[in-house]
Amino acid sequence: MEPEALALTLPIRRLVEFLLRTGSIDSRFTGFDRALEGARLHRKLQRAAVKEYPDYQAEATLKQDYACAQITYTLEGRADGIFTDTDGMPTIDEIKTTTLPPELITGEQSPEHWAQAQIYAAIYARQNGLPAMRVRLTYFQVDEELEFRFSHDYTADALDAVVTDLLTQYAPWAKRAAEWQRISRASLAALQFPFPGYRPGQRAMIGAVYKICTEGGQLLCQAPTGIGKTMSVLFPALKAVKQGGPVFYLTARGTTRAAAENALALLRASDADLKLRSVTLTAKDKICMQDRRECTPEACPYAKGYYDRVRTALWDALDTHALTADALQMLARRHKVCPFELGLDLSLWCDVVIGDYNYLFDPVVHLERFFDTAGDYLFLLDEAHNLPDRARGMHSAVLAKSAFYDAKKRLGKGKSSLKNALTKVNDIFIEWRHRCEEAPGDSRFGRTFFEKSRADALD
Ligand code: SF4
């Protein structure tokens, strides 16, 4: 019998980062503020490029099928820019913002950046019948505000060879993912409700959740304690997930994440043939295995060389089906990789992702790897009444007096203009606190702010 043909849609950036990223985790050169700043700088550089090259096309979507190693891949992505260079050469521009010191920006420090742009160029050349293309990497060093440009010209054949080589390297992973998808979905189709009967109201809830998961839309469930809500949403969602996924089970509290883990454990115990891989994303501070969390290669052995070892760790981890915090730490120790990052990397290979609301809703820490491209996901939100408060927290800026006071203290003795500025801000906070104390009934000043100010004063 002919083996079933495999088809896989793959974001180009995910492919190249997965295969080619090497080196260490280094929190000095990453971070959420940096990511937001990077997006803003991208737009600024693109606006400048439009003035320099009249045909500069920013954010050009590219998509192309490639057949390789008995797999049909649909590669898709968005080039930062496509334009005609001054000598008439069609060019792909890939922009990267970086905090690397300028002397380390050689153009060769990140092979995955070249590969990403080369794949865009291969697709564009193929679709437009071009014999050759130029690939340009534009680096913007954010602290020094310096721009660096590096270019190479390639024939269309050379670009195609790059794509084929990468897809060949990825083939074992694609086959493993496809095989898992096949057996997992078959086992979910055969899965039975794990209890002999339903509690009052449970059957109706399961039916409503199943319907919304198959047809799409939103459903708000309100049910009394004891009905078995966790199982009543997880079971029908798993029955409904066909080709897409994963199912995200998102909560406000750690205890309710444990309830989801327990429900999955019960399903696994009730059906020995069930193939279901889940990961629990735990806050970095909680899952970190170091006494002090400092995510740099100098301070943390799990950060040093993370990207050199993570593929071996992932291949091994895929044999574990319940990737709880304990399981992640065990795997992390075995392969000397950060358990937090390993959990995130594994989430792409799981049928269920359990975690905090943040991973979906927070504009700064949401899971880019899922939500920056379109996907077919199911979201189960536990205790949704917590969402308004959490949303307020996610979308509100916080300015604390203690940060200014601490910074001033760290500057030590002696005078400086920075110290003067910090003192002024600290004084303004004190003045506001006095005003709050004089007008405690004034609704403009929240109780939390008032108490926080008091705590600062006691420090
Ligand atoms: S183990 Fe802890 S310190 Fe090390 S990279 Fe992970 S979170 Fe950071």
Could you explain how this protein is built, in words?
The protein is 48% helix and 17% strand. The chain is of the alpha/beta class. Among the domains are: 6-170, Lambda Exonuclease, Chain A (Alpha-Beta Complex); 401-458, no CATH class. Helix 3 links the parallel strand 4 (90-98) and strand 5. Helix 6 packs across helix 7 and helix 9 (306-317) packs across helix 10. The longest helix is centred in the middle third of the chain and has 35 residues, at 156-190. The chain is globular, with a radius of gyration of 26 Å. The termini are far apart. The relative contact order is 0.09. It binds iron/sulfur cluster. Iron/sulfur cluster (SF4) binds next to loops.
What's the gist of this structure?
This protein is an alpha/beta fold and 459 residues long. It is 48% helix and 17% strand. The protein has helices at residues 12-20, 32-52, 111-128, 156-190, 202-215, 229-240, 254-270, 284-287, 306-317, 325-335, 339-347, 358-361, 368-371, 387-394, 401-410, 417-438, 447-458; strands at residues 6-11, 57-68, 71-84, 90-98, 132-141, 146-155, 247-251, 278-280, 322-323, 352-356, 378-381.
What topology does this entry show?
Blueprint: E1 6-11, H1 12-20, H2 32-52, E2 57-68, E3 71-84, E4 90-98, H3 111-128, E5 132-141, E6 146-155, H4 156-190, H5 202-215, H6 229-240, E7 247-251, H7 254-270, E8 278-280, H8 284-287, H9 306-317, E9 322-323, H10 325-335, H11 339-347, E10 352-356, H12 358-361, H13 368-371, E11 378-381, H14 387-394, H15 401-410, H16 417-438, H17 447-458
Parallel strand pairs: 1-3, 4-5, 7-10, 7-11, 8-9, 8-10
Antiparallel strand pairs: 2-3, 3-4, 5-6
Helix pairs in contact: 1-3, 3-4, 5-6, 6-7, 9-10, 10-11, 15-16
The chain binds iron/sulfur cluster.
